């Protein structure tokens, strides 16, 4: 039930992306075209992240947060005043902070504090969008939300191998710097964007040094698949950081397109593909076993982004930009098809031996 708005937001966002690439599709309503980025962050990725947190704490009220994020994203497109949907999104984002507050009370950890910082940036983006700040100006807040959410999760896995009395303190300072640079980018873009890029590189350097993915890349099966997705996603964060350091504040054009999609596609979709076999079973109550064919959409995603960023944006080749964007959409849809097929073929954990054999 909670995944339905996220799925609808995804499909509408992908349709908007196809039209914004300049491909020959039926014309979009103005609201859909203007809400493409918000649909993908609030309606799709945000709903999935908050739903996973709600499942983790097992509180009935926590499920209102993902429901409001998904519902608000769809209400924005309805023939209603836009403030209704945007206000609903704000309330859903605040619900994520309440979920983190519950998690903190159970176990106060640096990883939770970093994820809370990410949630604050989601609220900031939602409030500013309610105040009619264009989506293009919210990219630093969107990026900080996505990056800090994943960073907090990765710290939870890495902390057992960290030494010292305060494991993760360096990452906490890097996360605070990244979050602070969001405000700087909003108030003084010319200064804030390069500093945001530097803070992003600080966070990524910690991940490359301490993330367990460096070791599990030498494993086999699911651990190696997850490590490959994670490390390739981190590489796209480096690309985005360098672009913001060199290119500075920009809200349109090739530089903007390259930086935005390095984070929202290269990093975010890599994280979704990496964690889907682990997180989705907890949400859907159905196993999603790893299969080697899952590498196919991952490779297609990164190849399409290289085509889009290096040749489409870098050399001003509109045809290659459109081709790269189309292949990225195809990669995400292909991953969803493979995941659904894999989950459908997987036996339920409580199935009898005879039923498992039949399946």
Protein architecture, described:
The chain is globular and about 45 Å long. It is an all-alpha fold. The model is unreliable at 351-359 (pLDDT under 50). Helix 7 (139-158) runs parallel beside helix 9 (189-210) and helix 9 (189-210) runs antiparallel to helix 11. The protein has 15 helices and no strands.
In short:
The protein has helices at residues 3-20, 30-34, 36-57, 64-75, 82-106, 110-130, 139-158, 169-187, 189-210, 213-216, 221-247, 253-284, 295-313, 318-345, 353-358. The protein is an all-alpha fold. The model is unreliable at 351-359 (pLDDT under 50).
On the 0 to 100 scale, the average pLDDT is 87
Structural class: mainly alpha
| Helicity, as a percent range | over 70%
- Describe the main β-sheet briefly: none
Strand content: under 5%
- The H/E string reads HHHHHHHHHHHHHHH
- How many β strands by DSSP? 0
How far apart are the termini? 26 Å
Number of helices: 15
* Radius of gyration based on Cα positions: 20 Å
């Amino acid at each position: 039930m909670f995944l339905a708005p996220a799925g609808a937001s995804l499909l509408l966002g992908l349709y908007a992306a196809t039209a914004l690439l300049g491909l020959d599709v039926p014309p979009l309503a103005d609201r859909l075209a203007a809400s493409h980025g918000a649909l993908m962050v609030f309606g799709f990725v945000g709903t999935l992240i908050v739903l996973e947190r709600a499942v983790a704490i097992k509180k009935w009220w926590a499920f209102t947060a993902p429901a409001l994020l998904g519902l608000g994203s769809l209400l924005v497109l309805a023939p209603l005043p836009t403030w209704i949907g945007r206000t609903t999104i704000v309330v859903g984002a605040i619900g994520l902070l309440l979920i983190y507050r519950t998690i903190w009370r159970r176990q106060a950890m640096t990883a939770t504090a970093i994820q809370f910082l990410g949630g604050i940036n989601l609220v900031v983006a939602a409030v500013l969008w309610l105040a009619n700040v264009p989506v293009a100006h919210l990219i630093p807040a969107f990026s900080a939300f996505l990056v800090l959410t994943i960073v907090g999760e990765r710290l939870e896995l890495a902390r057992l191998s960290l030494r010292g009395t305060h494991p993760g303190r360096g990452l906490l300072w890097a996360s605070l710097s990244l979050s602070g640079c969001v405000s700087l980018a909003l108030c003084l873009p010319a200064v804030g964007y390069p500093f945001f890029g530097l803070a992003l590189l600080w966070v990524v350097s910690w991940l490359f040094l301490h993330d367990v993915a460096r070791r599990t890349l030498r494993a086999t099966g699911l651990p190696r698949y997850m490590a490959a997705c994670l490390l390739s996603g981190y590489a796209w964060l480096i690309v985005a950081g360098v672009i913001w350091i060199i290119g500075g504040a920009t809200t349109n054009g090739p530089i903007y397109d390259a930086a935005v999609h390095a984070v929202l596609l290269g990093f975010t979709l890599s994280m979704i593909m990496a964690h889907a076999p682990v997180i989705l079973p907890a949400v859907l109550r159905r196993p999603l076993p790893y299969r080697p064919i899952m590498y196919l959409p991952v490779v297609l995603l990164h190849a399409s982004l290289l085509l889009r960023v290096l040749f489409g944006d870098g050399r001003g080749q509109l045809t290659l930009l459109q081709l790269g964007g189309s292949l990225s959409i195809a990669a995400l849809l292909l991953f969803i098809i493979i995941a659904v097929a894999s989950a459908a073929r997987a036996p339920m954990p409580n199935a009898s031996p005879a039923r498992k054999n039949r399946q």
